[in-house]
Amino acid sequence: MSEIKAVSYNVHSTICMDGKSDFRRSAEVLKNLNPDVAGVQELGVFTQRVPDVNAPLEIAKYTRMNYLFSRSLVTTDKGGEYGVGAFSAYTLELKARLLLPTPEGAEPRSALIVKVNAPEPFYFAVCHFSFQGEFEKSEFYRTMGAKLITDTIIDNKYYPCIWTGDFNTFAGTDTVEYIHKHWLVANDLDPATPTAECSFGGERQIDFICAYPKESFELKSFRVVPEFEASDHCPVEAVLELKK
Predict the structure, then answer these.
(1) Of 17, 46, 198, which is closest to residue 26 (Cα–Cα)?
(2) Each residue's pLDDT tens digit, 81-140
(3) Phi/psi zone of residue 145: left (φ > 0), alpha (ψ -120 to 50 degrees), beta?
(4) Cα 116-180-216 angle, rounded to 5 deg
């Protein structure tokens, strides 16, 4: 059996809570956590908000991790990009970039699925769902996104798999109930500690780490990391043991 430390972290476009942009502060959080794999959301590449920084590249260099990036949208007429990334101490192979369901005119959302070339290889997914109230029936679209990711992983045998993300929803919703049917949800060890301000309901735990199939993993630990300065989200961390 092999232990895997997984992290999910929304880095708020590397804009810290003092309003200053500094990718190093986001990268330092990840470096100190020292994960085997990390799913990172709100990554910008020469965006209008942070025009001089390729955040996924700089974070990877700072932490000495490998990475793959999935663009969700183009943010400037000069080609600035914004999306999610997978980071790992191991080499990564791209398996899928998914455009998640959203209504016409809404902000595009994406998911990334990679193969992690660890001594015992596994797959890894990262996503960023639409936020509560972003548009009508947003929970329905989050559930459809979760189903698309799950079906893609099952149909293509991209498992055993660890899935991380800013789900922008919380325990008890249709999306999280759907995920529980298929996935081991690490957050179940501590479902109450909030990770960010939710647009509905105040502070909530909206950042998740899950594993599929349930019987392939033993959940060793889960925690919300109390880091409040580098981003408007706290990272979440889980240690999962991959069964042979």
Answers:
(1) 17
(2) 889 999 999 999 999 999 999 999 999 999 999 999 999 999 999 999 998 888 899 999
(3) alpha
(4) 40
